[in-house]
From TrEMBL:
Catalytic activity, EC: 6.3.5.4
Protein name according to UniProt: asparagine synthase (glutamine-hydrolyzing)
Keywords, alphabetical: ATP-binding, Glutamine amidotransferase, Ligase, Nucleotide-binding
Protein family (similarity comment): Belongs to the asparagine synthetase family.
Native source organism of the sequence: Bradyrhizobium japonicum
One Pfam assignment: GATase_6
InterPro entries in UniProt: Asn_synth_AEB, Asn_synthase, ASN_synthetase/amidase, AsnB_N, GATase_2_dom, Ntn_hydrolases_N, Rossmann-like_a/b/a_fold
Superkingdom as given in the UniProt entry: Bacteria
Length: 662
C-alpha cells in the first residue's frame, strides 16, 4: 500500500520549476508509505512520478517504485495490491517471461507489456490506483480499481495535469489554487460525504471506480479544464453492467447450493487477502460481516489470527463483549482497547487534515482509533466492509423489501399512507404504537425522526427520490445552493431492493465507507483489505434472488447461513448496532463549547456558504432536546473544522478558500 503522485505538463510549461514540485507533493503522503520514497522524471516529455512505499509484498529494493517495465517502455507508480499476482506470474513464466523480483507491481507491468493496460486490469483481482507513462506513445494513463477502494484525484492547472492519492499532495503543486465549489458543499451537507463525481475544490475530479483516463501533453491545449478531462474518462469495468447482467440471469440453485457456493467464494476471497510478507490481522466488531471474515481466516490459518476491537464507556455504543465472545469461540489472538469519550474526542482536531475533504460519518473516529490500535502489531488488517452492500444488510434494504408492495403502488395510495404515517409522527406516536401492538421492526421505525423519514419515503415520486429521502442527513436545507440529483449511470433494475443496493454500491460505498476506511487506515500506515468486496463476490451477489438477501424480516440471510457453519447463532443473531459514537449527547455536553464557537452567527455569515438561520435553528432545537439534529450538525461542524484547516494550512490565499457562493 502506498501513496502516488504525478505531473504531466503542457508543452510550453517551464520544465524545471514545476517538475521539481514532485518532491514536496510526494512528501505530503509519507503516512501512506513510511518505508521509502522514489521518483522518476523525463524533463523533455514534461512528466514526473513520485511514490511513497509501505512495503507489503517483496520487502526488498526489487519492489521499489516508480518501476520501469523490462522493455523500458512503461513506467508505473502504483498504489494497492494484486491479490492473484502469483498465478498470473506463473502463467507469464510459462510463456517465457523472467522476473527480477517478487512484487505484484512487476507482474502487473509484465501483464501490461503483454496485453495492454485495460486487458491487464481485467485479469487482475485487486485494489489499486495507477499512474502509467507510455514512453513510446508519450501517453499518461490513470486507472482505478473496480470498487473504488483506492483513491485517485486529478487536477487541471493552467500548465499541467497533476494526480495524487490525496488532495494534500495536489495542494503542494505551485500552480494549483484552492477554490471551493459551493455545489459540492451542498452535496456534502445533504449526505455527509461527497459523491465520486464531485470534489470540494474546483478544478479537481476523481477517477471513478472502474475508470481510466489516457492523455498526452498535446491534448491539454484542447482539454483546458477539469470538466473536459473528466468527460474523457472511460470504464474498463462497470458496476452498472455487473448489476444488470446479474439481475438478468438470477441463480436457480437451491438454498443449500447457494450457501455452499458462497462459502467457497468467500473462503477464496479471504485466502487471497491473507497473503503478505508482513503481519496480518483483522478488525473485529462482533457483527456478521467481520465475524464471517475472521471465521474464514481462522479456518485457513495454522496459528491464531490477530483480531482487534475497541469499545467506549457508553454501553449502547460498546460491542467489545460481542467481539470477545466471537474471538474466544474461534481461538483468535484478541486485543481489546476500551476508550473513554475523552479519548475519542481528542482525535477530532485531526479529522480535517486526515480526510482532506469534508467528511461527516462519525464512525470515522472509532475507525481511526481502531487502525492505530491494530498498527501496533500488524501492517495489514482485513475488514468486513462490503457485506451490507453485497448481501442487503442496511435497514433501508429490509424496509424496501417489506414495503415494496406499498411503494410500488399508485401515487394516490402512497400519498394516503404517507399522510397517515406523518400523523403518527405528530404526537400520536406512543399511544398508537401501544394500542395497535405493532411488530418490533415497525415499532423501531417510530423512534426519533425515523417515522418522519418513513413518511417521506412512502410519499416519494420515484425510486431515486425514495433513496435520497431514506439516506439524507436532514430535511433542512443548510446551504443556499441546492444539492444535485443522482448520476445518470444508475441502471434501472426494476425491483426496489436492487434499486436501493445499486445506489449504495455506486455512491455510499466508495464515497463514504471506503473513503473512511482508506483515510483512517493509511493515516496510521496500515493497509486495509476487504474480502467481501472481491469483484467475484460482488458479481455473485447480483445474481442472487432477493430472498437470499432479505428473508423473514432480516438482511444478509445468505451471509448468516455461511457464518452459521462456523459460529453458534447466539453469538451473532442480534440487532445491527453499527460502529457509532454518541455525537448527539457529546454536542450537548463536552463538545458544546467547541461546537458553539464553530456555529457562531458571525462566523457563519462571514463565510457566505450556509443558510445561517437554518443552522442556528437546528443547533438550538438540538440543545433543547426537541429534535435530534446530531447528524446534520456534525456535517456542519466537520465543514467548519475543515475550513479552518484549509485556511491555516493550505498554500492558497484565504480569499480563494472562502470565495462566496454565487
Amino acid at each position: 500500500m502506498c501513496g502516488i503522485t504525478g505531473i504531466l505538463q503542457t508543452p510550453r510549461a517551464s520544465r524545471s520549476a514545476d517538475l521539481a514540485a514532485i518532491g514536496p507533493m510526494t512528501a505530503r503522503l509519507r503516512h501512506r508509505g513510511p518505508d521509502a520514497d522514489g521518483f522518476w522524471s523525463d524533463r523533455d516529455a514534461g512528466v514526473a512520478f513520485g511514490h511513497r512505499r509501505l512495503s507489503i509484498i517483496d520487502l526488498s529494493d526489487a519492489g521499489r517504485q516508480p518501476m520501469l517495465s523490462s522493455d523500458g517502455r512503461f513506467v508505473i507508480t502504483f498504489n494497492g495490491e494484486i491479490y492473484n499476482y502469483k498465478p498470473l506470474r506463473q502463467e507469464l513464466e510459462g510463456a517465457g517471461k523472467r522476473f527480477t523480483g517478487n512484487s505484484d507491481t512487476e507482474v502487473l507491468l509484465a501483464l501490461i507489456e503483454k496485453w495492454g493496460l485495460e486487458k491487464a486490469l481485467q485479469r487482475c483481482n485487486g485494489m489499486f490506483a495507477i499512474g502509467l507513462w507510455d514512453r513510446r506513445n508519450r501517453t499518461l494513463h490513470l486507472a482505478r480499481d473496480r470498487m473504488g477502494k483506492k483513491p485517485l484525484y486529478v487536477a487541471r492547472t493552467s500548465n499541467a495535469v497533476v494526480f495524487a492519492s490525496e488532495l494534500k499532495a495536489i495542494a503542494a503543486f505551485p500552480d494549483f489554487h484552492q477554490e471551493i465549489d459551493p455545489g459540492a458543499v451542498a452535496e456534502f451537507l445533504s449526505r455527509g460525504w461527497l459523491p465520486e463525481n464531485q470534489c470540494i475544490w474546483r478544478g479537481v475530479f476523481k477517477i471513478p471506480p472502474g475508470g481510466a483516463l489516457s492523455i498526452r501533453a498535446e491534448d491539454l491545449s484542447v482539454f483546458r479544464d477539469a470538466a473536459a478531462l473528466q468527460e474523457r474518462v472511460r470504464s474498463w469495468w462497470s458496476l452498472a453492467d455487473a448489476a444488470q447482467t446479474g439481475r438478468a440471469a438470477l441463480a436457480t440453485a437451491d438454498d443449500q447450493q447457494l450457501i455452499s457456493q458462497a462459502c467457497d467464494l468467500l473462503k477464496a476471497a479471504v485466502a487471497d487477502r491473507m497473503v503478505a510478507d508482513v503481519p496480518v490481522g483483522l478488525f473485529l466488531s462482533g457483527g456478521i460481516d467481520s465475524s464471517t471474515v475472521v471465521a474464514l481466516m481462522q479456518a485457513q490459518s495454522a496459528r491464531p489470527v490477530r483480531t482487534f476491537t475497541i469499545g467506549f464507556g457508553e454501553r449502547a455504543f460498546d460491542e467489545t463483549a460481542n467481539a470477545a465472545a466471537v474471538a474466544q469461540h474461534l481461538g483468535t489472538s484478541h486485543t481489546e482497547l476500551r476508550l473513554t469519550s475523552a479519548d475519542a474526542r481528542a482525535v477530532i482536531p485531526e479529522l480535517p487534515t486526515i480526510w482532506d475533504e469534508p467528511f461527516a460519518d462519525e464512525s470515522q473516529i472509532p475507525t481511526l482509533l481502531l487502525s492505530r490500535l491494530a498498527r501496533q502489531d500488524v501492517t495489514v488488517a482485513l475488514s468486513g466492509d462490503g457485506g451490507d452492500e453485497c448481501f442487503g444488510g442496511y435497514s433501508r434494504h429490509v424496509l424496501s423489501a417489506r414495503l415494496a408492495p406499498l411503494l410500488n403502488s399508485n401515487r394516490s395510495i402512497r400519498t394516503m399512507a404517507a399522510s397517515g404515517v406523518a400523523l403518527l409522527g405528530r404526537g400520536m406516536r406512543e399511544s398508537v404504537v401501544e394500542t395497535l401492538r405493532l411488530p418490533g421492526w415497525l415499532q423501531r421505525m417510530t423512534h426519533g425522526d425515523r417515522i418522519n423519514r418513513l413518511a417521506d419515503l412512502i410519499g416519494s415520486n420515484d425510486v431515486g427520490e425514495m433513496y435520497r429521502r431514506s439516506t439524507r442527513l436532514s430535511e433542512l436545507q443548510l446551504t443556499r445552493t441546492q444539492a444535485g440529483s443522482e448520476p445518470d449511470s444508475i441502471p434501472p433494475l426494476n425491483d426496489l431492493l436492487s434499486d436501493f443496493i445499486v445506489r449504495d454500491m455506486l455512491g455510499y460505498l466508495p464515497s463514504d465507507i471506503l473513503v473512511k476506511l482508506d483515510r483512517a487506515s493509511m493515516a496510521t500506515s496500515l493497509e486495509a483489505r476487504c474480502p467481501l468486496l472481491d469483484h467475484r463476490v460482488v458479481e455473485f451477489s447480483w445474481a442472487l434472488p432477493n430472498s437470499a438477501k432479505v428473508r423473514h424480516g432480516q438482511g444478509k440471510w445468505l451471509l448468516r447461513q455461511v457464518l452459521g457453519r462456523h459460529l453458534p447463532r447466539h453469538l451473532f443473531e442480534r440487532p445491527k448496532q453499527g460502529f457509532d459514537v454518541p455525537i448527539g449527547s457529546w454536542l450537548k455536553g463536552p463538545l458544546r463549547s467547541w461546537a458553539s464557537d464553530l456555529l457562531s452567527e458571525s462566523r457563519l455569515r462571514n463565510q457566505h456558504l450556509l443558510d445561517v438561520s437554518r443552522v442556528q435553528e437546528c443547533w438550538l432545537q438540538h440543545l433543547s432536546g426537541r429534535r435530534d439534529f446530531s447528524r446534520p450538525l456534525w456535517a456542519v461542524l466537520m465543514l467548519q473544522s475543515w475550513l479552518d484547516s484549509a485556511v491555516t494550512s493550505g498554500p492558497s490565499r484565504t480569499a480563494d478558500v472562502m470565495e462566496p457562493a454565487q
